[in-house]
Design brief:
The complex is a heterodimer of chains A (476) and B (207).
Chain A: E1 3-7, H1 11-17, E2 29-33, E3 40-44, H2 46-50, H3 59-65, E4 70-73, H4 76-90, E5 97-100, E6 103-107, H5 112-115, H6 118-132, E7 137-141, H7 144-153, H8 165-170, H9 183-190, H10 195-200, H11 203-210, H12 212-222, E8 238-248, H13 255-272, E9 276-285, E10 288-301, H14 304-316, E11 324-331, H15 355-366, E12 371-372, E13 374-376, E14 386-388, E15 406-413, E16 420-430, E17 438-446, E18 452-458, E19 470-474
Parallel strand pairs in A: 2-4
Antiparallel strand pairs in A: 1-6, 1-7, 2-3, 5-6, 8-11, 9-10, 9-11, 13-14, 15-19, 16-17, 17-18, 18-19
Helix pairs in contact in A: 4-13, 11-12, 13-14, 14-15
Chain B: H1 7-12, H2 34-39, E1 50-55, H3 62-73, E2 80-83, E3 88-89, H4 91-96, E4 104-107, H5 112-124, E5 129-132, H6 139-152, E6 156-161, E7 173-178, E8 184-190, E9 200-201
Parallel strand pairs in B: 1-6, 1-7, 2-4, 2-5, 5-6
Antiparallel strand pairs in B: 7-8, 8-9
Classes of the chains: A alpha+beta (476), B alpha/beta (207).
Domain UmuC (chain A): 19-150
Organism (chain A): Dyella thiooxydans
Protein name (chain A): UmuC domain-containing protein
Chain lengths: 476, 207
Amino acid sequence: MLWACIVLPHLALDTLLRRRLPDAEAPPLVLIDGPLQTRHVLDADEAARAGGIAPGQPLTTAHALLARFDAVAHDVALTARQHDLLAAWAYRYSAEVLRLPGALALEVQRSQRLFGHWPGFEKKLRDDLAAMGFRHRLALAPTPLAARALADAADGAALTEPGQLRAQLAKLPLVHAQLPDDLHEAFARMGVHRLGALLALPRAGLRRRFGAALLEHLDDLLGERPIPRPRYLPPDRFDARIAFNFDVENLAALAFPLRRLTGDLATFLAGRDGGVQRFVLSLGHRGQAPTRVVIGLLQPEREAGALFESARSRLERIVLARPVEWLRLRADELPPFVPGGRDLFDLRPEHALPLAQLQERLRARLGDDAVYRLEATPDPRPEHAQRIADDAGRAAVPTTLPRPTWLLPQPVPLRTHGLRVLAGPERIESGWWDGGDLRRDYYVLETAEGQRAWAFCPAGERPDALAGWMLHGWFA
Amino acid sequence: MAEPLSLTPLLESRQVWHGRERPAPAGGIPSGWPALDAALPQGGWPAHALSELLLPADGVGELALVLPALGRLATRERPALVVAPPYLPGVAGWSARGVDMRHVLVVRAAGSEILWAMEQGLRSAACGAVLGWPGEADDRALRRLQVAADTGRTPAFLFRDRRHAAQASPAALRIELETRPQPQWRVRKCRGGQPPAQAFALSRAGA
């Protein structure tokens, strides 16, 4: 087995940064942690680091160094959720994903058959992470912990020969071995600085002095016992939330966080090999019930662009009465996704859009019922002879009777002159069973303007050429 | 007096070039109306372009011209998009003219959304044909539609009032329908050829 380890040294900070609206005026961001009295800097963005702020400094020192910055307390739950989402992302590349503290490991030997050999595979992973906005280090080794240690020591290292594992690890500084309970400090005091020196020490003595956990860790590192950690399984629903540090008052400003959320949803769905047909956007207001926007799609979808576009056009239709504090995307039903097939010899142009996506786009902007098919019904009454089809519609039964191509929704008096009867009458007498009883004689008329009308009069009462006709359609 | 020359020997000795043998630009969609196909340089409706029909009123035979072609263009994979029709399409009437209504998507839209919906349909290349009743549309809007029809390689039919005939149009084909002295149509503009001077009688069989 070969494991790729992705170390995320700035996971908490990147989680915050990618949620921030892009703004050149934004003050430097500093992530702080610890109890109220002894706050210290956990991480700082580039602008803050340029100002001299470094992780580990007390907050008071940071304030002395830099006049103005945003200090955000570390939200452990938020970082954990982001870690989960990244595991869901990694799941699309491998069925075996491990969550390590501040890192992810995924088994890639079997995945290489699908995603290609390591250098190309590595680039795919790095491109995805860069697109999502996560700084990372990446290495390949026969065990997850060895990959972790290698990634810490040398970004991009790849160790593919299990036989060389011990020799290569021996060269590594002990600090990268992620020993339990920070034991590397104790070993440093003993003069043991490299992993090789530690591995050379007698096991019995180590067990007596440091406990079994250390030996198990070393065995995991060298792959000398099976990997016992619980494997990651993706959850059955998606729920993500972005809180703003200021009130958002116009919808245009929601586009950026919405793109992040729908992008994360697409990433999650790709990992699960599923799609989404219905999801809910909630817009949170201070002290008020959130505004809910339900996005229903005609068929399961998982492409980030399509999800974003559907959500945005639905969002554009609402009226924002109150400022928005947070945005939440929740998807409970995740049906299987069947990608639409395209013909190999399909010569359609570049920006071609599948029919379903076109319908989705029209529906999103014009309303859910604005795109429809019509179907014929067996009812002979013209008002009931056709209806909006629920799905694909039924085939019409061909008729030899004159039927117009334009139908008026309601008959109206025909106000014109010089009418000429071309055909008729055709008596339609029906509907006694549901109260919509009608008895009419239908005629095909030609108006003086050359239009052909489908008009009727009460049965048996043919009016003169001037008045009394009810217009019901046009033969266009 | 010279002998009157007979054309046949000249033609047989291939000294005379047949002006009419010039190959017509291909790619027209047969309209189902022989007179119309003969009058148009492509031998039918322009395939990837805008055709404009100018009407004196609704219901003068504009659908009769288009529906036979639409019956072949609209398929299950690529249905026809009918944007903002002035009335309800009559299922029985359209079916009688060869259009399978299962393959027709009607779009309800108003104002500028009509042009937007048409453009989306054309650009997507997911439709067999796009029909639209845009009402007011300026030269720029029509040009957008023409470009979209070209990009999406989809025929578009635009139905407008006759008073727009004087307005310049980027459509590849413009046909004006007349009702006086008799129902007839006249080609106002056709790309790739001279519009024929005479009008053609519009026969509306089945109406």
